Amino acid sequence: MKMKTVRLGVVIALLFGVFFNDVDAQLSGRLPVFNEIPTLDLAVGYSKTTNLVFPYEIKSVDRGSKSLLAQKAKGVENVLLVKAGQVDFAETNLSVITGDGRLYSFRVVYAENPSLLNLSFQPDSVPAFAAWPERVPAKIDGVLVNDDILHADADHAKHAATFLNKRTKENKVAAALHSIYVKDKVMWFSLELQNYSLLDYEPAFIRFFLKDKKKAKRTAQQETELYPVYQEKSLSVAGNKSLTTTIGLPQFTIPADQQLVIQIGEHNNSRLLELTIKGGVILKTRLLRP
């Protein structure tokens, strides 16, 4: 009787082993292969600022704890200033995504006197980074973060065929929407700015927002700001000249009771232009083909 029990146990164990090995093999065949992203150790202090210099514009910063302070340097898009918000904070982490789609991961600890205050991640200054994955497909709001690709797509959309002519004109300056294209969930708006005066037209901002068509009595009008993923840094239209700029926004549609407003203006809202776009125009968006 004991011999039969032992044999039965061996058979059951073998069957379970075969079953789980087969399941493991099937699962391993379906599992994706991941590239490990290195995590770097970073020590920061309370009375000293640590400067991180990246090769591309900083797109996103996430702090693991409010005890860690981090902000971009004023007027510089690729330098991050980091310091402790309190003394002896618990170990935390810091994640930075840059314009080339790369993710930088840091394990951050407190140090009263950090030995290293300036770190550069430029490829020519940090040979060790050559071993990192060439590109991490990082996304923000579902849109791929890659300045090189966005720049190429913006230029492509700028020179693509025009099929719209929505215009507005005030104070001897005008704006016209000539086309809307979409690629990889980014909508590209091609705007022509025209200056009919002798004074240079230098827009300080170009805003996109959704706005209620009609304002109900005793209710505030609702506005939803739309933030570009790509936009030229500065624009200047010389007297009696024109230029075309292309702006990329995350893909969107317009509710039936709202409309899109494109607002362009100089400092202090001087020479302000407003271009109103209905939902039906957005639905005419074309695919940006290679």
Automatic annotation (TrEMBL):
Top-rank taxon of the source lineage equals Bacteria
Question: Which InterPro entries does the protein's record reference?
Answer: Conjug_transposon_TraN (IPR022298)
Q: Which Pfam family, just one, is annotated for this protein?
A: DUF4138
Q: What is this protein called?
A: Conjugative transposon protein TraN
Q: Which gene encodes it?
A: traN
